[in-house]
């Protein structure tokens, strides 16, 4: 793990297929510890700082769980109220200050590029926990881990990305990552929320088959993975534009009658109306397992960037 020590995890683009496979295999070894079946003190004496300038539930709690499961400690904030950021402290100064208190920094920020900027001001490893509509590399790693763990492989699968493909950072990241794994992609979005053309071109350039449609029902019979995202109201500059596309898709039991028996439904959560709760009881539903998988994946990354294991 020596080459990973001190490494920043800022974008999925910074990781090769070999890097990703290394993380997935390490995460599988972590799963029993994440489940509480085994214990570890590998990060005893180490401290994780969680700097969340934007609300989060799953990402923040899973990072904290990962660190605590490995015997480490956690400090940080979950919103900027009550911090010096409200007094006008810059991101650079916040990061410089925090590096004196912690061994690794996890940052979520509303502005794209914030994590890369933060990494320039500290020698501590910085992990990007989401920067605006930009990157969310650890979410992508847990998504890839879930597909690999549930289906036994990634190569050769037909993966449909559904919903807000314009503003959704999770789908931007996973599309980029899947391009290196020999999967084929189907992009399903309402008109006006298509995947940015530069990401489509980047994926196609790797030889990955990419098809696009506005009709969810067209892709269900052939999909191996249905990766559903919510229409993100908070990312829309114009509320009226949001209202036009809200509720465009809904995965429900009638839709899934057409699905392959082993097709899995993923969602980065939180969901709103796009997956009927009745789907939760079907064998297709893997989104809560996907949420749990954040813990072993983030445990693996924390050990790796701290040079342990």
Q: Could you describe the 3D structure shown?
A:
By secondary structure, the protein is α/β, with parallel strands linked by helices. The protein has 2 domains: 2-135 and 293-305, Aspartate/ornithine carbamoyltransferase (Rossmann fold, 3-Layer(aba) Sandwich), CATH 3.40.50.1370; 137-291, Aspartate/ornithine carbamoyltransferase (Rossmann fold, 3-Layer(aba) Sandwich), CATH 3.40.50.1370. It contains 11 helices and 9 strands. A 5-stranded parallel sheet has the order 7-6-5-8-9. A 4-stranded parallel sheet has the order 2-1-3-4. The longest helix is centred in the C-terminal third of the chain and has 19 residues, at 287-305. The mean pLDDT is 91.
Ordered list of secondary-structure elements with their pairings:
Blueprint: H1 17-34, E1 47-52, H2 58-69, E2 73-77, H3 91-98, E3 104-109, H4 114-119, E4 126-131, H5 137-151, E5 158-162, H6 169-178, E6 184-188, H7 197-204, E7 210-213, H8 216-219, E8 225-228, H9 239-245, H10 253-256, E9 264-266, H11 287-305
Parallel strand pairs: 1-2, 1-3, 3-4, 5-6, 5-8, 6-7, 8-9
Helix pairs in contact: 1-5, 1-11, 2-11, 5-6, 5-11, 6-7
Structure at a glance:
With 309 residues, the chain is α/β, with parallel strands linked by helices. Helices cover 36% and strands 14% of the residues.
Key terms for this structure?
single chain; 309 residues; alpha/beta; Rossmann fold; globular
* Main β sheet profile: 5 strands, parallel
The CATH architecture of the largest domain: 3-Layer(aba) Sandwich
Topology-level CATH name of the largest domain: Rossmann fold
Unreliable sequence segments: none
| Number of domains as seen in the coordinates | 2
Considering DSSP H and I runs of 4 or more, what fraction of the residues is helical?
Answer: 25-40%
Determine the number of helices (DSSP H or I, runs of at least 4 residues): 11
Q: What Rg, in angstroms, do the CA atoms define?
A: 19 Å
Order of helices and strands: HEHEHEHEHEHEHEHEHHEH
Q: Quickly name the level 1 CATH class of the largest domain.
A: Alpha Beta
Average pLDDT: 91
Mind telling me the CATH superfamily name of the largest domain?
Answer: Aspartate/ornithine carbamoyltransferase
Morphology call: globular
Structural class: alpha/beta
Q: N- to C-terminal separation?
A: 7 Å
Range of strand content = 5-15%
Report the count of strand segments: 9
Strand arrangement in the largest pleated sheet: 7-6-5-8-9
């Amino acid at each position: 793990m020596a080459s990973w020590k001190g490494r920043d995890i800022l974008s999925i683009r910074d990781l090769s297929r070999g890097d990703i496979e290394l993380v997935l295999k390490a995460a599988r070894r972590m799963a029993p510890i994440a489940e509480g079946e085994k214990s570890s003190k590998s990060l005893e004496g180490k401290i994780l700082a969680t700097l969340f300038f934007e609300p989060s539930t799953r990402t923040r709690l899973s990072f904290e769980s990962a660190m605590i499961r490995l015997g480490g400690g956690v400090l940080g904030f979950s919103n900027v109220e009550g911090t010096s950021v409200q007094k006008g402290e810059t991101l650079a100064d916040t990061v410089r200050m925090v590096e004196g208190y912690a061994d690794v920094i996890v940052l979520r920020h509303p502005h794209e590029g914030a994590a890369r900027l933060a990494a320039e001001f500290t020698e501590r490893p910085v992990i990007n926990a989401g920067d605006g509509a930009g990157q969310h590399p650890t979410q992508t790693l847990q998504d890839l881990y879930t597909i690999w763990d549930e289906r036994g492989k990634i190569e050769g699968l037909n993966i449909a990305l559904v919903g807000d493909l314009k503003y959704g950072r999770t789908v931007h990241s996973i599309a980029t990552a899947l391009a290196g794994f020999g999967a084929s992609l189907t992009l399903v979005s309402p008109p006006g929320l298509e995947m940015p053309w530069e990401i489509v071109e980047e994926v196609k350039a790797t030889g990955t088959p990419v098809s696009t449609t506005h009709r969810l029902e067209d892709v269900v019979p052939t999909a191996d993975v249905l990766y559903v995202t919510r229409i993100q109201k908070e990312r829309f500059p114009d509320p009226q534009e949001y209202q036009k596309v809200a509720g465009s898709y809904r995965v429900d039991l009638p839709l899934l009658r057409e699905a392959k028996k082993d097709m899995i439904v993923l969602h980065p959560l939180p969901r709103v109306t796009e997956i009927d709760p009745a789907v939760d009881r079907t064998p297709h539903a893997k989104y809560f397992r996907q949420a749990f998988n954040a813990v072993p994946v983030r445990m693996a990354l924390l050990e790796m960037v701290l040079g342990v294991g």
